[in-house]
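Exercise 7. Predict the joint structure of the components listed below.
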Amino acid sequence: MTVTLADVAARARVSPATVSRVLNGNYPVAASTRERVLRAVDDLDYVLNGPASALAAATSDLVGILVNDIADPFFGIMAGAAQTEIGGPGDGSGRAGGEKLAIVCNTGGSPERELTYLTLLQRQRAAAVVLTGGAVEDPAHQAAMSAKLTKLADAGTRVVLCGRPPLPDSEAVVAALAFDNRGGGRRLTEHLLSLGHRRIGYVAGPLERTTTRHRLEGHRDAMRAAGLAGDEERLTVHGPYDRRSGYDATHELLRREPEVTAVVAANDTVALGASAAIRDRGLRIPEDISVAGFDDLPFSVDAVPALTTVRLPLFEAGARAGRLAMGKEKPPPGGIATIAAELMVRGSTAPPRVG
Amino acid sequence: MTVTLADVAARARVSPATVSRVLNGNYPVAASTRERVLRAVDDLDYVLNGPASALAAATSDLVGILVNDIADPFFGIMAGAAQTEIGGPGDGSGRAGGEKLAIVCNTGGSPERELTYLTLLQRQRAAAVVLTGGAVEDPAHQAAMSAKLTKLADAGTRVVLCGRPPLPDSEAVVAALAFDNRGGGRRLTEHLLSLGHRRIGYVAGPLERTTTRHRLEGHRDAMRAAGLAGDEERLTVHGPYDRRSGYDATHELLRREPEVTAVVAANDTVALGASAAIRDRGLRIPEDISVAGFDDLPFSVDAVPALTTVRLPLFEAGARAGRLAMGKEKPPPGGIATIAAELMVRGSTAPPRVG
DNA sequence: CTGTTAGCGCCTTCAG
DNA sequence: CTGAAGGCGCTAACAG
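Solution:
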């Protein structure tokens, strides 16, 4: 029925072990023998049995990339970049060579699904796992994650964090690439303050996520430094990282405080929704209200007016995470690297109206 | 070292066979026995060995989802939707149950990588494969794809096409969900014609892709029906499906023909770039030039002015593909379904200036 | 450089 | 309902 390695061996008149060796290419085989085997493989249209191979070798060529929301380019860009480093270029023959199979798993931001996927990857004896994006801060979940990642690491799976803060005290992780969300958030708000804004609304991401907290903390640090503490709670509205949330939260914000002169959004997608809400109220950007985002996704520069935001080098970070997962790059000192966030000032922010 | 099924059996004082049966749940086991086994599993923190299981059972719980560009929400939305149907909700314990592992593979639009991923999936004995988005029209590649998909199907892998036209003559495919790209393209251009536009530029996608061709054919059908044939080549510029391409191609288009009053883009992302180019030339949308896109991605409604486009039910299509891949839904008659594309008229299109 | 020999960990008949 | 036994297809020592 299905052709096996033994069939190939028979046809090439060699032993199964030899066939295995030429297929894996990690052992010397005479050129003529290799030739013969390869021809047999082609003749028989043989395809390696992944599970059998993984079982015998006790490793597999799967690399998992976990993302919170695959429909969000924030994750898509990182995952795609990681995949280019992991997947190899292919040999143009459609025959799979020694490359790894980079697979993207969409957790939808759910802690349960995150753990489930890790278990599934553990089952598959994944060669590496890349966790992207912010983490949920629930202590129970964090403990479960630590435990799970430790087990994965013990089983030989390389664990890399990308755009996620390092775990409290885990030796399991090869490397953690953390974005400077706090610094970026701070500089963004400082920019608004320097323009003269004082009443700044904040449309935050979902509660209990590190990304949300860090960006918000950066914002509040800046506010506090400017002597504007005290009104934080009232001027902050939380919601998911999507367009709709930005829209709704901004309406809520302007209801609570119509005198807001600037709105900082949790990310660019939310900023888009916020902008729509502001316009629906008949207000202009940036003349009446300034708007700022975070991430600098590709569409942000094309918004009208172009969106002031904080640029995160998503592609570069994803690619680096991919290389780390493949062991192609040396981990940073201490296993932790902070990735800079750059303020991008564009047309959506301007000084507040006088009066 | 690693705990195996036999360890669990020993601890639960049953045979390995019994443990296997409770784990797979597809065979009657006494409640008390099951209880004991489950407890042993928890005590020992046992994780099933996927490869061993797949080898013995000759099947696996992997489902592959192939996308052309994971950073593009067009694919992200479909893939995410498919994954919700495939991955199951999890049981909240982080312990993986009977669900499938939905994995997204990013081909980058490369035919070679597409075939490579299919081979990798074939190796893993994937339970199903979902191919999303347009196909490359190169005959050699199409033949190779047909052959590969047939082999996958023969090995028991369910193949589903989502947003991709059915293969010429393949019995391999369970179901093909094709978008009505041609009809959508035609109606979009008819809309522009009805507004009074006559000189319409077209920023097309990459050559040799079904999506590109069908949308362009719809456009040209409409032009021809209006007696406006003849100038197609000059008013069409091809490029990748990205923002940059839309920007560059639109500049090129306006260089070739400054009298263009409307630009139709291959998709919404391209339309964003086209809009930026138009503005950079000091022209207004829609007063000087109308712009239209395709897909109706989430950001399109927030563009300024809001983008006229053709809505594709990406989430619904992806979810349906996921269900078909799981065998949860009956395939459409003949295995082929055409998914309607709906014209969304918004602010970016208006009658051309008079004179 | 190549063949031989044992498993890898699990599922699945087949008996009981 | 449960146990025993064989093998899924491949790899990894060992010999030669």
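Discussion. The two ends of chain B are 82 Å apart (CA to CA).
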